[in-house]
Amino acid sequence: MTPLDTLQAHSSFFVICLGGALALPLLSFLLCFYVSEKYSWATSVLAPFLMMASTVCAAVVLYQAWNHPAFTWQRVWFSIADHTFTAGIHVNNASALMLFVVTGVSFLVHVYSIGYMAGDTALRRYFAMLGFFTFSMLGIVVSDNLLLIFVFWELVGFSSYMLIGHWNESPAAAEASKRAFIINRVGDAGFLIGLMLVWTHGHTFNIEALRALPLDPAWMTAASLCIFCGVVGKSAQFPLFTWLPDAMEGPTPVSALIHAATMVTAGVFLLGRAHFLFTPAALNVVAITGAITALLGAFAALSQHDIKKVLAYSTMSQLGLMVAAMGAGAPEAALLHLFTHAFFKACLFLSAGSIIHALHQAQHQSHVNFDVQDIRLLGGLRKKLPFTFIMFVVSGSALAGLPLFSGFLSKDAILAALVHWSNTGDAWHWVVLLVVALVSFVTVLYTFRLVWTIFNGEEKSTASLVVSEPPVVMRAPMAVLALASVWIWFSWNPFSFSGWIYNHIGAAKDFHGGFVSMASAAWVLLALAVAYASRGRKLDSRLLAQGFYVDLFSRKAIEQPTLQLADLTHRADKKWIDGFLHATAYAQVIVANLTGWFDRAIVDGFVDGAAGLAKSIGSFTRSFQGGKIQLYIFWAAFAIIIFIIWTLL
Amino acid sequence: MNAPLILFYFFEAAAAIAAVALLFARSVFYGALLVIVILLALAGLYVLAFAEFVAVTQILVYAGGILVVIIFGIMLTSRLSGKPLVVEHTLPVSGGLVGLAFFGALVYAIALQTFPTSESVAKTSTTFDATQTVGIALMSDYVLPFETTGILLLMALIGAAVMASDNASKKI
Amino acid sequence: MAPVHHFLYLGAFLFSTGLIVIITKRNTIMVLLGLELMLNASNLNLVAFNSLHPGSLQGQMFALFVIVVAVCEAAVGLAIVLRVYRQYRTSVPDHVNELNQ
């Protein structure tokens, strides 16, 4: 057991920090489980504290690893026959940044959870699983080895199952957690097959070693598509996305964590990590899948009424954008969007959680009951929740991709990459580009629809409630995340995405995005105008005929088709996809009945004969072992006598 | 027919008769007493086979120790049940047949063998002190098995005490 | 000195008797007694064979250790019998068949 590769240019301090960043969430998991029931409040201090330490360590790692040669560390894991399996850590720029983002968001979510989950009966399990969730995700981020990634991948699936079903007394939550788990398994089956293919043709799981190998393109297409299956499941791509909206049954901070840092991003990160495995044919599939998902998600988000579901579908659509960018051969753009998305989506979810929390508290005091997540019942909360309003608008702007916000930069990078891709590739690449442009338009629509419905207009069900802002432990993480949604962290120039991150997370290509960024800024602002014009209109009602040109335009040219498309995609989701699932279920039942009949009539007939024989033999042998010890001894002695006589004669 | 030979056949007859009586004993208590008779007779035979130390151990440990324990056990069980322990028989015919067949096979096997007559060696063996030799051998050549059996005894003692103790639910 | 054969015949007889006792007696203590009988029969053989080799002590030693092990066996066996009796109110071995139900 000797280290196969030593560390170069990395101090032992760096190694300690890296170990700390990885081990502290695990420590938090263990400690939270072992705290006794009586001191379960202690977990809400302990877990965030450990996460903070982990975040600090990750920050040091990021600072030291940035623009240095990748840190690698390997050990022999186990060997079967003469095959040696190694396990190791590989930290390059992208994984160091991801490490920091995951621990940072997780830390903020921990802090937020102190307020949000206060008084929960299963606090220990909650914080323990948060720690474990983070740890599994960090494992994916730093592993240098596809097999190890798969192991952590499954752990992420398991811990998300535990967290989505945290309120396991609610049947919907239990159902949702099962659903998330099983749909993820479907994708993981593909991942596993992909791993086998990779092993058969590369004889190694080490990513860096695979990069150097000449691999058969036909098989690599198959293998990478199988790996992409895992990504489809984990990152909620078409057609395995239905678990993501259902997963909203979990606690809101968990949703924030799943959507921003730990779960769905794992798939995109893996795509970036194993991007070299993907052949052009496989990348085309990836791009198309991403585009379809983005489109479906965006329109489904338009027609939803549940605040968390809107956000969930928006995540889906943003993930679709990232995957499409991966497919277009621009992993840097996808990763940049991944990082920006982590901050603003976490902030959006935490703001939504803050609304839900505040309204729940208010309901509790005045004994009014209505569904606080239904945006049709909300309105005019701007005055009652000014802080949340600002947070929501800032992060929503980032989501919509307004200039000066981080989302603008990353979406720009994706658009620029796609423009470049369309210019160089087949004609149908333009379709993907148009779809992505449409998605970014619709993103603005649904984001600001959400903002206007919840915060502007007249108060509906909440009019009589005394609503107060959530405590500071919940507001502070939101503020930090909202600050991180501003452009300046990602690039000095608000209109150029090629900042310090973009240029260093991979072999960044410059797409000369000046024109694209101007065009997309104009496009987004147009969308904003449309959204403003159609504000307050119920999307499921007919718009009034009167109105200025934009109104008319939006109604005639955009809103109605949009509505129809939204309806269509909603139906596609609910009817076709669910219907397809039902049809397969029915088909399975029919096949099961058929096989059942076959089983009874023919197989059983045969088996009964065999069983009858076995039974008669059994009842004969049974007489030897009726639980009578002395009979056993008798038979034993009998056998010995026969043996003695046999030897003597 | 010298005196040792008479004693030998006397002890053999005593052991055999007691064993037959044991087969037909219907009371556990009498059965235990018959086993004591057998053990004492065997101790006598050991003396005749120049194994005085084993004979003494037989009497001390078996007749004096084990059988007393067994009789205690019998009395305890009959006290618990409140009625005398009467032994039923199961499988008398097949059990007896198996035993007889076994005996027959063993006798046949023994009769086939020829052993050197012990008359020649008997005279030399009377000259040395068996007990002293056994003691020296136990402490030199056989010290490891000796110590091991000591540990085994200790374990059996503790185990038996724990198992037979009354407070069954107490954590051990 | 009696011929070794006669020791062996008695040993075989006691062994067979012990076997019959074990098989036929419907009482756990009697079964234990039968077991002791069988051990003693083998002991008798050991001692008898040892008398053929006056210089060596191996047979006697073996017999001694057999006795010690028999002590352990009797003590533990009796403790088990007592415990079983308290638990199931029976000393008939076949009645303790909970695992068979």
Structural class of chain B, by secondary structure, is: mainly alpha
Biggest sheet architecture of chain C: none
- The multimeric state of the shown protein is heterotrimer
Rg for CA atoms of chain C: 17 Å
The end-to-end span of chain C amounts to 56 Å
The sequence of SSEs of chain B as H and E is HHHHHHH
What's the helix count of chain C? 3
Strand content of chain C: under 5%
> CATH class of the largest domain in chain B, please?
Mainly Alpha
Task: Give the radius of gyration of chain B.
Answer: 21 Å
For the sheet with most strands of chain B, the description reads: none
CATH topology value of the largest domain in chain B: Four Helix Bundle (Hemerythrin (Met), subunit A)
CATH topology of chain C: Helix Hairpins
CATH architecture of the largest domain in chain B: Up-down Bundle
| Proportion in helices of chain B | over 70%
CATH class assignment of chain C: Mainly Alpha
Number of domains of chain C: 1
Number of contiguous helices of chain B: 7
Whole-number total of structural domains of chain B: 2
Considering residues with a beta carbon less than 8 A from a beta carbon on another chain, report the largest interface and each chain's count.
B-C, 88 and 69 residues
Number of strands of chain C: 0
Organism (chain B): Chryseolinea lacunae
Subcellular location (chain B): Cell membrane
Membrane topology (chain B): Multi-pass membrane protein
Pfam families (chain B): Oxidored_q3
Characterize this entry briefly.
Chain C: The chain crosses the membrane at residues 6-23, 61-82. The complex is a heterotrimer of chains A (649), B (172) and C (101). Chain B has 172 residues and is mainly α.
Layout of strands and helices, then pairs:
The complex is a heterotrimer of chains A (649), B (172) and C (101).
Chain A: H1 12-34, H2 43-65, E1 71-80, E2 83-91, H3 93-116, H4 123-142, H5 146-164, H6 171-202, H7 207-212, H8 217-234, H9 243-246, H10 252-262, H11 264-273, H12 280-302, H13 307-327, H14 331-366, H15 386-400, H16 406-424, H17 429-455, H18 472-483, H19 514-533, H20 549-622, H21 629-648
Antiparallel strand pairs in A: 1-2
Helix pairs in contact in A: 1-2, 1-4, 2-3, 2-4, 3-4, 3-10, 3-14, 3-18, 4-5, 5-6, 5-10, 6-8, 8-11, 8-12, 10-14, 11-13, 11-14, 12-13, 12-17, 12-20, 13-14, 13-16, 13-17, 14-15, 14-16, 14-18, 15-17, 15-18, 16-17, 16-19, 17-19
Chain B: H1 3-24, H2 28-48, H3 52-81, H4 92-112, H5 118-125, H6 130-139, H7 143-164
Helix pairs in contact in B: 1-2, 2-3
Chain C: H1 4-24, H2 28-51, H3 58-88
